[in-house]
Specification:
Blueprint (H helix, E strand, L loop, with lengths): L2 H12 L1 H10 L9 E6 L5 E7 L2 E4 L6 H9 L10 E5 L5 H9 L5 E6 L2 H10 L3 H5 L3 E5 L7 H8 L9 E4 L3 H4 L1 H39 L7 E2 L13 E4 L5 H4 L11 E5 L3 H6 L6 E4 L19 E4 L4 H6 L4 E5 L2 H9 L13 H12 L3 E5 L27 E4 L5 E4 L1 H16 L4 E4 L11 E2 L2 H8 L6 H7 L6 H12 L1 H28 L4 H20 L2 H8 L1 H8 L9 H34 L3
Parallel strand pairs: 4-5, 4-7, 5-6, 8-13, 9-10, 9-14, 10-11, 11-12, 12-13, 14-17, 17-18
Antiparallel strand pairs: 1-2, 2-3, 15-16
């Protein structure tokens, strides 16, 4: 079996979707350079060369390619834990192969290959069986699945593994594919920025979020979650996502013409403007644990269905008398639903209520999503509809002039630019969805189709649609019989809190004793092992408690600085152990404090079930 047969057989078996796209598009591939060449090297191996404008670019050493790849890989530090490696350029796989030799079995490697024609050439001419088989590797190739690269990376990158991330490029790829390389770096930077935003958000909102979760538990009885509504949206009905940007004033009144012919989803910040104009909307989206209560004070909001995450502001949900539909869950309720055969689908809120609303519409199955009020830019000094100016801390930082939806340049700021990048990544990752920007002002979202709202309503809103009727026909997620069992699980939280506090206290003592022993340097291995055994047992019991999912989120803000160090190791074994134990001690202490703070609230919340 030659290389082509072997590699293609591996792709078909291990990466069937990649293989299917390869076969589908192979005949349409266009040569990217003068030619690709496979050259025998001095040590009997094979090297890849690319001929561009008459000049030969060697992608591997023509003397000793394996030795070159080994030396290249030696520049990276692999001693940390939870490493995510990102490689620009697959080539003939030799550099990737050297990275894989150094990485642990649970490592993740993301490979971005910008040249479909080169990928086909290497698959057919080089032995790449080992790297193609390796389950640690995710491969993204231009014209096949590259649009999914940023989204997949976002799902794996977390603020805890940012310090141990390895970002690398195959030699010469940065020079031969300059523009694509810039796009690659920008995509990685955006993912890392979002991870940092999530870190700051988690730390800032952790206490409020978990307090809300506990207060919101009683809503589970009569609520829904997004999978209940999937496949219930008629084909051809568009979704209109209403945000509160300054341009909303221009077309808000036109929404009356879309009533009953589109799914109109309002962000919580846009609701008051819609009500001022008597403009229709079918549902509200809210997700912020600390959202200002001023947005939903109007009594008319109380009868409108609300899409929410489980940790959203309890005050909003208590005032709302209509159906609650969960689009995302934090770890405790996600595990609870899973135990009863209900799985939350992957969901990216994007960090703002508008991006969250977009993701909600995508999850519901809408194939046309229309954005209005999604300016992501200033209108003069205005930041929101109704002539409102809402400024943020360090607002001048990261201000930038960007392309406007109506041509020319508009002024944006760093938080809006993050959301703009998120929309553009989402549009690339969801080619089956047509995204129409009918904002009529603000920043241009690349990949969207710019149209006026009047034109969209005239040409796209032709089918009758009654979201209230859809909900009427859809019962709550859990039947009465099922909910009895769900309630029993939630009531058990009180006993788990007592158990967890005792175990955290036990673990804290063992951790302190072991640190003292290590610092003495001359203690017996038997005493150390006894402490370690206690810690392992304690951690095992803690991890098995469903209540731990609540506490783990709650203590995020208390342990962020410590946890960030957890994957960073030195060459000193004792120092690594002391650092790990110090982190464990901080977590035990935070857990004890959290349980003491939350127990009264838990008892109050469980009484409402």
């Amino acid at each position: 079996m030659d290389n082509a047969e072997k590699n293609r057989s591996v792709l078909q078996e291990v990466r069937p979707k990649l293989y299917e796209k390869l076969i589908e598009r192979e005949k349409e591939k266009q040569p990217s350079f003068d030619s690709f060449e496979k050259t025998e090297t001095r040590d009997g191996n094979w090297a890849l060369c690319i001929k561009k404008d008459g000049k030969v670019n060697r992608m591997n050493s023509t003397y000793r390619p394996a030795q070159e790849a080994k030396k290249w890989a030696d520049q990276f530090t692999f001693q940390n834990m939870n490493i995510i490696t990102i490689l620009y350029g697959l080539g003939n796989g030799i550099f990737l192969g050297e990275l894989l030799k150094r990485l642990d079995a649970d490592a993740k490697v993301f490979v971005c290959e910008p040249d479909f024609a080169l990928f086909c050439f290497c698959i057919d001419h080089f032995d790449m069986e080992d790297v193609l088989k390796d389950e640690r590797v995710q491969i993204y190739v231009d014209q096949i699945n590259l649009d999914g690269f940023a989204g997949a990376l976002e799902r794996s990158v977390h603020w805890t593994n940012l310090p141990s991330q390895i970002l690398s490029f195959h030699p010469n790829y940065d020079k031969l594919y300059i523009e694509q390389y810039k796009d690659f770096l920008a995509a990685v930077e955006n993912v890392n920025k979002m991870a940092k935003v999530n870190r700051d958000t988690e730390a800032h909102l952790a206490h409020s979020a978990i307090s809300n979760v506990m207060k919101n538990l009683h809503f589970i009885k009569d609520s829904n979650y997004i999978p209940d509504l999937i496949d219930k949206i008629p084909d051809g009905v568009p979704a209109i996502v209403v945000a509160a940007g300054p341009s909303l004033d221009k077309n808000i009144d036109q929404l009356k013409n879309a009533k009953g012919k589109a799914f109109i989803l309002a962000t919580d910040t846009a609701v008051k403007y819609l009500l001022m104009h008597d403009a229709p909307f079918d549902a509200i989206v809210t997700l912020d644990a600390k959202k200002s209560p001023r947005h939903l004070t109007d009594e008319r909001c109380e009868q409108v269905p609300i899409f929410s995450n489980v940790e959203a502001k309890n005050l909003f949900l208590e005032k709302n008398r209509s159906r609650k539909i969960w689009f995302r869950s934090e770890p405790y309720t996600e595990a609870l639903y899973s135990e009863f055969g209900r799985e939350f689908p992957p969901y990216s809120s994007g960090g703002s209520v508008a991006t969250g609303a977009f993701s909600t519409c995508a999850a519901l199955g809408f194939k046309k999503i229309v954005l209005i009020g999604q300016d992501l830019a200033y209108d003069g000094e205005m930041t929101h509809a109704g002539g409102v100016e809402l400024h943020i801390v360090n607002e001048s930082y990261g201000m930038k002039m960007v392309d406007g939806v109506n041509g020319g340049k508009v002024r944006s700021r760093y938080d809006w630019l993050i959301y703009k990048d998120w929309f553009e990544d989402a549009i690339r990752a969801l080619p089956e969805i047509e995204v129409i920007d009918a904002t009529e002002g603000g920043a241009l979202i690349k990949g969207s189709k710019v149209r006026t709202l009047a034109d969209v309503i005239k040409k796209e809103c032709k089918k009758e649609f009654d979201f209230a009727a859809v909900l009427e026909e859809t019962g709550p997620t859990f039947s009465a019989e099922e909910y009895t069992k769900v309630k029993e699980k939630m009531l058990h939280l009180e006993k788990e809190f007592v158990l967890l506090r005792g175990k955290a206290t036990e673990g804290k003592k063992a951790q302190e004793d072991l640190m003292k022993l290590i610092r003495k340097h001359n203690t017996s291995a038997q005493k150390e092992e006894k402490c370690l055994k206690t810690i392992r047992k304690v951690n095992n019991v803690i991890a098995k408690q469903s209540a731990y999912n609540l506490l783990d989120t709650y203590i995020t803000g208390m342990t962020t600085e410590k946890v960030q160090q957890i994957n960073m190791l030195s060459e000193d074994a004792d120092q690594n152990m002391l650092q790990t134990l110090a982190i464990s001690g901080a977590v035990y202490t935070a857990m004890i404090e959290a349980i003491d703070e939350l127990t009264p609230l838990l008892k109050e919340s469980l009484a409402k079930l």
